[in-house]
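Hello again, I could really use a second opinion on something today. I've been puzzling over a protein and I'd love to understand its fold better. I'm sending you its amino acid sequence along with the backbone structure tokens. It would help a lot if you went through both lines with me. I've dropped the whole record in just underneath, so have a look.
***
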Amino acid sequence: MRGVRFLSVGLLLLSAVCAEGQTSWRDSLSVLNREIALSPRSTDLRLKKAAVNIELGQWEYAIDEYGRVLDIDSECLAALYFRAYAHTHENHLDLARRDYEHFLAIVPRHFEARLGLAMVKQKMGRRQETFDELTLLVEQHPDSALAYVARAGFEVETKQYEAALFDWDKAISLRPDDADLVASKVDVLLTMKRNAEAAATIEEALRRGIPRSALKRWLDLCK
């Protein structure tokens, strides 16, 4: 039920943002402040206000507003997720980590929150914990190319090239027509000086129907 609630709140936030059109965000903020004064325990209004705060670049105000929502409902998924996002933007890494972990204690298989937690741990310099989070992401979402992409990117950054090749292959198997995935694998092979294998990877992609123009730059690098 909480996953459904989070989705409905997310849609509510999206509709609030999209409905603004040319209306000033600051005017919207004034309206929301008046509505909140009349209904101070309305989490929906406070979530909308926090979303406007973010649009205005008022990250600390947004964090405070999400905190007020959580004072009303300590397990409000939208507030936990977006406060973690705001904390990350403001480089409050330990606070972001706590919010993501609280969120994931409620919804352990949430893709974006798990990825967000991994990114926070990476920024904190916790390499093994980052890898563990990304591995859990892959285990929880074995049919998601993006899960393998996320882990492969980390492996490339930490120069675990063989492991990265495995993950790029898994991602490509799930999205065989994605030229960017092929290019990413080729980049790793070229870094490892395995030019012939890189060229073979491109030729195989061309046979699958990926346009030569999409991979021409990498073909040239293989020569």
